[in-house]
Write a structure and sequence with these properties.
heterodimer, A: mainly alpha, 7 helices, B: alpha/beta, Rossmann fold, FAD/NAD(P)-binding domain, 4 domains, five-stranded parallel sheet, elongated
Chain lengths: 100, 640
Amino acid sequence: MTRLNPEFAEEMKHFGEDTALACFNCGTCAAICPLLYEHFPRKMIRYIQIGAKDRILQNAQELWKCLHCGLCTQTCPREANPGEILLGLKRMVVDHWRKS
Amino acid sequence: MTDEKKKSNGPSERIGVYLCYCGGNISDHVDVEDVRSRMEKLPGVAVARTNMFMCSDPGQEMIMEDLKNGAVDRVVVASCAPSLHEKTFRSAISRAGKNPFIYEHANIREQVSWVHHGNAATDKAARLVSAAAAKAAHLVPLEPIRVDALRHATVVGGGIAGLRAAKDLADRGIVVTLIEKTPFLGGQLARLDRIAPTGDKASDLVCELAGQVLAHPNATVLTCAQVDDFDGYIGNFTLSVKIQPPADPKIPEGSAKGTDRPDLPGRFIPFAGVLPENPPEKEAAVKLNTGVIVLATGFSSYRPRQGLYGFGTSDAVITLPELIRKMAGRPAAGSLLTIDGRKIRSVAMIHCVGSRQIPGIHPEDESGHLNEYCSRTCCGATIHAANQIRETFPETRVYDLYRDIRTYGRGQEELYDQAAKNGVVFLRFRPEAEPEVSFADPADSFALKVNVVDTLTFGEELEVPADLVVLSTAMEPSDVSDLVEMMKLPVGADRFLLEVHPKLRPVELPKGGILLAGTCQAPFDVGESCNAAGAAAVKASAILAKGYVELDPFVAEVDAARCTGCGDCVEACLQEGALSLIPVQVEGQEGKRAQVTPALCLGCGACVAVCPENAIDVNGMTLKQYEAMVESIVSDQTAA
């Protein structure tokens, strides 16, 4: 069971990410993403919303599969900018790796 | 009817039968010309004609021409359902200068060509049209029933809808009495703070309208008043109103402070409403003679059962109206919301509490009801409150647990957008897996936890830490069972009052002269309530404007020569007051005879069925007319 942690969304602001909460989970980004991973990148964005940092770290390798083609950002109906969110997550993961 | 009367008033010999092709809708399956030639041979039929579209101008003119030159004195049109064009043809007859009640309609589209094919279709059409012609032969001209209408309206309920209706009626010069059960005007709206989506102050809305009604020379307001007896009919209702001192005569706190609008009468008491005058100390009764009644009896807020989402087991579980009240007028005393002295770090708001209940999933209430409807206003109100919290107390987190978000209407989707910008986190649950609210572990700093299977997180179970759980409770209709019983009002499966037609006659009830305004009919927001109230006021003034009301003449009529005064009809009558026995002098003896009050009669025919003397008939649907129809249907005279 995951306990909601609102602090994580705040923490992400340090890594230049401030749009994850605009996402309303429509899944357009996951549908348009050429990588064909299940629910990628929406899953990562949802994990920010609920503050599941450990899940993101567990699945961090997925982030580096992203080609940064920009299709998700282009099609996002909420202008949540999924491409930028993924970049922010990469910065967070690298920072975490350095600290540990 | 006596035999002599029969002779003098025999069946018509000049019936006109007009058959419609409906542009192929009928003629593709019914041989209309064949039906025409069969009708022509029927006794009493003077002319039988066809047209591609009988409802077209040439079609109607054909009928009018035959009437004007005296070729026909009864009209039968065989076309679509009478609900579509019966009025059209009756009006054509009126325009030809004849009585519109010499008309009979046969439906050969919905009842024939759309459901049958081939010879069988043509034969059935012929039978239906011949039956209509047989009835038409016995039709007599009738006059609409005209009843005087009192130029007075009564509005039941002093919430926003009742106030709006009363103001609109008074402005049109109609004398209005508004009856309100409580000592206050403003209804449920007065118990709110700022209204979604515009942020208007509820007290401003209530004060403005209540002030206008109280100041209006045409309007009288009776508070602590309830209708306890009802009689009469459209244009002429009698109401008896009981005025009772309130059970709790104490005026709520804040009464010392008047309204901030000294120009308006009455004083506003927060979360109670406008108090026009001090509540009465003695019981009183008022009799009202009124032409129309506008029902604006409103709604009540759903009370969750004990234990639902922890309601009643913890003070930290409250309803949305309670939250609104507790938050009202609270200055931003810090970065955290404070409720009942407790600092609230996290709020979980749960939607659809008591709304959209599903049989088999949600338990019925103690009286066996489920609220299967959407209450419509709660999504907007919940998200509005969530935004208020996030914008005023930025350290207080808000979690919004929903089944579906329905922020319909102007300015409401923007609220939802704003909520995302404000960092409200949404979680979505399925109705069969509702969130569970429980006390948090003693080691936890939060008071409660809400466990939810979140479909947005791929069906994972999440735990929401919460200091406060807010339930977005449904709108339920006010208990008006006494009025329903008294006025014989129709009630829908959802227990709200039921209009005649949801699209075309949305504020009318089947009983003429009684209209609906606001949330007694369905969950509405403030604007929609005022719309409905305005519509009801227009309908009411349309009824009263002429000073009289015309009703269809299809009501019972007693043949005094045959009536023996046995009273069977009075006993069978479904509408109280429509039939009564009156004393008469018969050949020097005291006797009794049945008498119809036409404005009350429903024309149902229950009296006709029980009369042992055949002394009572419903005009336009007499036994003789029906016997002629039946004879025609079973005879072979229409066979090809």
